[in-house]
Amino acid sequence: MPIIRDVRKFVSIPGARTLLIMLFLYGIGTGILAPMNAVYLNESIGLSKVQIVVIFAVSLFCNIAITITVGWISDSLKSKKQLPVFAALLCIIGLFIYMNASDFRSALIGMTITVAPSGLIMGQLFGMARNHFARRAGDIVEMAQIWLRASYSIGFFAGLLLGANIFLIATFKGVLWGNMAGYVCLVVLLLLYKESTGELGAKQVVKGEPFSLIMLVALLMLSCADAIRGLYLQLVVLKLFGKPEIMSYIWSAQAVFELFFMTMGGYLAARYGSKKIIFLGGCFALATYLTYTSSTSLPVFFVVQPLYSFFVSILYGVAMGYVQRMFLSRTGFGASLYVFISQTASLIGYFLPLFIQGITPNIFFIPSALVALSLLIIGMVLYRERRSNMRNSIVIEQL
């Protein structure tokens, strides 16, 4: 089977396992804090909904500016490794300030220093990874990227479960120390990792994608919807069910499906095209958001997780590769652009629910509308491509 052959080739490549472990441990560290972040600001520091949004927005704005600026110049650097190392060290410094914050100002400073350089980490890690596999196994570059992203996701969801239990034992302080441990592991593994540079050692058979601004806008909308869920679902769950750790368990339910869905999505995209699979994932997301707006049952929140897991797998796996293939000759910029889209979507997504008073399931009407509009755009692009292909086929037959 192709998948077995590809997996064997992947694990045999020098450095592949180090990259897998690196992203897995970084995912654990990130996942420990992710569902507790807004709750920490609200419960431990006593910040309001607006103050929480301002902190997230300011830190993300700085992240966006740094990510796209450094991403633009990173391809001129012989080595990209020093960028995520430096960024992780800054994140550690920011976390020290954040975990000792006592008011809005100190929380803002700490989170900004933590979040602002973090966009360099994901963008440059996947830029390095694409270079690494393009030089050693060009025929499995796309699946290698997806498996690395899946490794991060599995680590992230493992971190969610770990974070929920750490919270019960050591409260928010323990959660923050767990997040810091993830950055420390990342720095250590990066220092041990030997980056691939120089000429391609194997022919890269991956085909590029034509640049499409309208598709980037559609992906921005999908990412914006996911960002709204990422911040506000934890607050809605806390409001409905009263226990912060429940969100960690809900999120971690995705882990069972993540690797399978990312792998399946990668092979389906290779066969049917990335845009069609992204469209399918968006349909599942729309079904999930509409469920959130119409149900207050905890079991239902768990039941819809597989649907959302498929969407997230496509958005973080297939869509990431799709954007990168628009810039095959500039891997650092392509990877950073995807992170830039995700972070810009988060910045927009944090503000949109402010138009809805309070924290209620009605918030999810906003991501529902965003996904519906995105599906309309992708559907139009697919329709135009189909008509263009039909016209070309007719011309060829006439010749």
Automatic annotation (TrEMBL):
The chain crosses the membrane at residues 20-40, 52-73, 85-101, 107-129, 150-170, 176-193, 213-237, 249-270, 277-294, 300-323, 335-356, 362-383. One of its GO terms (biological process) is transmembrane transport. It is found in: Cell membrane. Keywords: Cell membrane, Membrane, Sugar transport, Transmembrane, Transmembrane helix, Transport. It comes from the Bacteria. GO terms for cellular component: plasma membrane. It is a multi-pass membrane protein. PANTHER family: SUGAR EFFLUX TRANSPORTER A-RELATED. This is MFS transporter. It comes from Paenibacillus silvestris.
